[in-house]
Amino acid sequence: MLIRLLGPVEIINDGRALEAGPPQQRLVLTALAADAGRLIGTETLIDRVWDQAPDGARRTLQVHLSRLRRLLDTAQSNDQTPVRVVRRSGGYQLDVEPDQVDAHRFRRLVEQAHERHRTDLERIKLLAEAMDLWRGPPLSDLPGQWAATVRQAWQQQYLDAVQEWAATSVQAGETGPVLPLLAGLTAERVTDEPLAGAYIRALYAAGRTSDALDQYAVIRRHLAERLGADPGPELQQLYRQILAADPALTPAATEAHTRWTPHELPAPPPAFTGRDGELARLTSPSDGADVLITVIDGMAGAGKTALAVEAAHRIADRYADGQLYLDLHGYSEDADPVEPAEALGNLLHGIGVPSAQIPDGLDGRAALYRTRLAGRRMLILLDNAAGENQVAPLLPGAPGCVVLVTSRRQLAGLDNTRRLALETLTMADAIALFARRAGGHPPELVTELVDLCGRLPLAIRIAAARLRAHPTWTLAHLVERLRDPRYRLAELEAGQRSVAAAFDLSYQRLSLPARHAYRALAGHPGPELDEHAAAELLGVTPVAATQVLHQLMDANLLLEPAAGRYRFHDLARAHATTQRDLRDRPERKEADARP
């Protein structure tokens, strides 16, 4: 749960905004949250809520507090730190972690930025994170003198943070992100001299001397017209320094200061086994003359992410400017595929660009992203991609970076990429993976088990987890349960992991004709078929059959062991057969026929 005060007052729970009640009730919440974790006297609360306390103020305050208690108690979930209004002797207290209140998190981040051991880049990152919490004038929907006083104080804290962030960024040579924000703020606060000074310094540092002088003329005019005053001594000194091209105004940035270095890779996969040939390809040295982009594709459960993360950790030290990681949710049960613009926003955050400096449109974000990556050596891992259109805007435009992309699709439409088609494990590696997960067992049974699992890493890990979860089972018992192909997929399920669910996600991304073909082709009696057999099963021409076969191949739901010959992986065939059987049930047909 989050309580947001830096803008309109909001309570956010599980991503949803809760109705916090009428203005006075929101004022009570704010009065407590502003001093989260501290006892607030009853009279102090009354003074904060009412400029002139009415008769019965204590009783009305208790009504608001009771409603807040009910609201917060109803919204609690088991995995959250509880937020409660607590009655203490002499007053009330909001029990909440400070970071659950954006105003307190803002102050903590600014205080961390002031710590003496921080580098310039760390200060920039912390201040940018603090500024990202700002949604507009704080407590903007609350009436009263207390709210107005707090609003003014917090606005000044924000402006101080902006000016510190701007000065540190300019010193580090990063003027690009600073200028748009300062331009907007100075347009709103036309007589704010410290803010104008920060903007003028940034313009001059960016090489825009004439614009810096023009901006000085603008604030001098506003001060004369509105206040009848001249600029103060500091602003006048800055003006003279610009006219004299004072070297002191030129930032002495170094490479170490100008760049934020992200380290976003997930932890290396535990018990990673095999894939020596694939790892050799992915970790082979690159001369850096081009952007090296590798697409790792394969069927559901083949271990694409594990391979990519393992390879990324092995070469991470070659890329001094850091590593970016982003799950694109191309095939996720609980999330839709990430839109390219949103993905670019996340990547720009990863390289230190604050939200206020990220353009709204896809083209603007892609241009800024390519600009920021130019001249850098970075490793970028784009995991679980849905398709070419999602990935293309996320690729760097200049040499020096390496990009690993994982997807269930082949992504053949991407230019200048190399493909690594990830097949099932070798028998030796499949046996070794099971042994690492489940310990020693009779070799002949282990061989049969991994064969029943189709040497698919996900299926092998699930089988090992099933065995560990049932201490009374023997390996022979588990193998016996897996031998019947009708129930094999049902057995390959443990906790949140399921082979059937993994194949379901691939199946659901298919077009309707491809789904029909997937189900129908599972009925072919032989292990392989060609386009003529497929055409007969589907009732279409061989040309049309070839097109749909290629769609299934692109989704890695069908294999091509030889030119013009196609076959299912055993578990994919089992899944397709299950889908066909479900489709053929009378109750399903009846449901499909309904309008």
Write structural notes for this entry:
Keywords: DNA-binding, Transcription, Transcription regulation. Residues 576-595 are annotated as: Disordered. It is a single chain. The chain has 595 residues and is of the alpha/beta class. It has 27 helices and 15 strands. Helix 23 (512-521) packs across helix 25. The protein starts with a strand and ends with a helix.
Alpha-carbon distance between the termini?
Answer: 42 Å
**Strand line-up across the major sheet:** 8-9-10-7-11
Largest sheet, strands/sense/barrel: 5 strands, parallel
Overall morphology: globular
Structural class: alpha/beta
Strand-residue proportion:
5-15%
Radius of gyration: 31 Å
Contiguous low-pLDDT stretches (5 residues minimum) are 253-258, 586-595
What is the multimeric organization of the chains shown? single chain
The level of helicity is: 40-55%
What average pLDDT do the residues reach?
87
Number of continuous helical runs = 27
How many strand segments? Answer: 15
Region (Disordered): 576-595
Keywords: DNA-binding, Transcription, Transcription regulation
Family: Belongs to the AfsR/DnrI/RedD regulatory family.
Protein name: Winged helix-turn-helix domain-containing protein
